[in-house]
Amino acid sequence: MRRYGDSCIGSCEGDHPAECSAASTALAPVGTEEMDMRRMFGFLIGIFVGALVGSTVALLLAPDSGEKLRAQLRARGEGFLVEVREAAEARRTELTDRLESLRSAQSGEM
To answer: What's the pTM?
Structure first.
């Protein structure tokens, strides 16, 4: 049995076939995991580059200037946050009222 690093090369019919078999099966998942990590890294790099190119093209093709566009986006974002806060406060008030009514109904039963 010849060895190169931790992997077996050649046939496993030499002095220690069980060792060679165990080593080759133990190494197979490591190579697979490494390949999966490389694919994932490549995919993430692709997403990053695509987002960068897309945002650049969007800014270049925008009908307004960058400064005006940023102001519009900021205003929309702030308006959205205000709406979310108002909806959350309304839901909180509704749930508080419901909790109080359940507590009063429960204390009325005792």
So the answer is: 0.38
